[in-house]
Amino acid sequence: MADAPANVATGGVPRLRRVLSLRDLIIFGITAVTPSAPVTVFGLVSVRARGHTVDTILFAMVAMVLTAISYGRMAALYPAAGSAYTYVGRGLNPHLGFLAGWAMLLDYLTIPLFCVVYGSLIVQRMLPEVPYVIIAAGFASGITYLNVRGIRATARTNDVLLVYMGVVLLAFIGLAVRYLLGHEGWGGLFSSTPFYDPREFDIKAVIHATSFAALTYIGFDSVTTLAEDVHNPKRNVLLSLVIVCLFTGIFGGLLTYLGQRVWPDFRTFPDVATAFMDATRRVGGVWLFEAMVLLLAIANLGAGLTGQVGAARLLFGMGRDNVLPKRFFAHLSAKTNTPSFNIVLIGALTFAGSLGKRYDLIGELQNFGAFLGFMGVNIATIRQFYFLPLTGRHKSFWKDFLLPGLGFVICTIIWLGF
Questions:
Q1: Which range among 17-21, 107-111, 292-296 shows the weakest confidence by mean pLDDT?
Q2: Cβ atoms 6, 174 nearer than 8 A
Q3: 224 vs 259, residue with greater confidence
Q4: This prediction's pTM
């Protein structure tokens, strides 16, 4: 298949080439989620959870790891582009798959849209003399151009973006540790207060705030849209999904833990939306604050790249199944082996939608679609592996029913809290 022409496969059905490694998938997933994701939710979650942000990150991680296992198992069974659309459609019912596809399409389409809007606003604060429409056009066209060039170009760009994000965030971690040791000693660095403060802890507040903290993980499932691009998808998709979710939870938990220790009183944030930036300024001064602003712009570029890839491949899967007009949506570029028509269409829609600047509404739509898809994939996993086990395979209550069942329940709780 890897040596075949871009649009040729058995029976004339268009197929994507398998050119990505496990490392590519992991970097793709981490970039899609972005290591800086906790930065954007830190202030709001701290206030809602009454200073227990770390708890919300870890609780959401449980839901995402369970859901990642379901995604990975379904990807191993159906290693084709389409993500939740494919898994729910084949695991439950084609009509439910159609609905899941549109729910996830809402998620994928709003990821690059959110990134263009938020990234443009960040850049405009640094360059107020440049009109917003020019910056938004630059973001949208840049993301589209890189993705049209091919998935390998996207993967290489992700490598560069991830290096910069890693440097800045590691600088914050090192400076925060130095700050805490210098001001409070070892007792300031190692504390149980971010996990449990008896004066402030409220389990209902923590559960409610988890609905916001779950934004940290949005985008991890875009890895499954590359199931036709990766070598050995039965192993690598599941493994990369779990690694991405665990990394996001552990690294995000560390960032929010240090943020809480550096700025322990959530009631005194100058601005809730930029609370983490204030903690960054406290430990590193103006230069780290400005580096973090640039990081957010770069992170939105990286997430926009991967979000557009996911949306384009979801449309490709729906077009190939004739759910959408096949001639347009199932088209693959003969030169780059990418669904180029879909990428350009999404780029145009992203730019048009970004002119409204309503990133708050965009975020709500994104979460609504994402968690509907997560719930559907967990249910599809139960039916596929517990009620319709493969011939010669014994079903397991714990693995085939309980794990995806818990994933469904926790995802439902989070979805109801939006």
A1: 17-21
A2: no
A3: 259
A4: 0.76
Report whether pLDDT(375) > 80: yes
Instruction: Answer for the pair 317, 326: CB distance below 8 angstroms, yes or no.
Output: no
As a whole number, mean pLDDT of residues 356-381 equals: 82
Q: How confident is the model at residue 315 (pLDDT cuts 50, 70, 90)?
A: confident
Q: Any idea what the Cα angle at residue 199 is, between residues 196 and 200, rounded to 5°?
A: 70
CB of 325 within 8 A of CB of 241? no
In this prediction, residue 225 has a pLDDT band, given cuts at 50, 70 and 90, of low
At 18, is the pLDDT very low, low, confident or very high (cuts 50, 70, 90)? low
Q: Tokens at residue 145, please?
A: 């151009």
Give the separation between CA 208 and CA 193, rounded to whole angstroms: 19
Q: What angle do CA 284, 360, 220 make, to 5 degrees?
A: 70
The pLDDT, as a whole number, for residue 401 is 94
Q: How far is CA 228 from CA 4, 78, 101, 146, 363, in A?
A: 14, 10, 17, 20, 29
d(C-alpha 11, C-alpha 404), whole Å = 35
Tokens 């249910």, residue?
A: 379
Q: What are the residues facing 225 on neighbouring strands?
A: none
Cα 377 from Cα 381, distance rounded (Å) = 6
What SS3 class is residue 394?
A: coil
The residue type found at 249 is G
Residue ranges of alpha helices (H) inside 263-384 are: 275-320, 326-329, 340-354, 359-382
Tell me which residue has tokens 């959870």.
49
Per-residue pLDDT at 341: 87
Using pLDDT thresholds of 50, 70 and 90, give the confidence band for residue 82. low
Q: Are 217 and 64 in contact (CB under 8 A)?
A: yes
Q: Pick from 14, 106, 3, 2: which is nearest to 322 by CA?
A: 14
**DSSP-assigned states of every residue in 73-96:** HHHHHS-STTTHHHHHHHHT-HHH
- Evaluate whether 401 touches 386 at the Cβ level (below 8 Å): yes
Percent of the chain that is helix, strand, coil (3-state, to 5): 75, 0, 25
Cβ neighbours of residue 302 closer than 8 Å, sequence gap 6 or more: 31, 32, 34, 157, 158, 161, 162, 165
Which of 19, 6, 20, 34 has its CA nearest to residue 306? 34
Query: Does the pLDDT value for residue 393 go beyond 80?
Result: no
Residue ranges and CATH numbers for the domains of the chain are 17-416 (1.20.1740.10)
For residue 8, pLDDT beyond 50: no
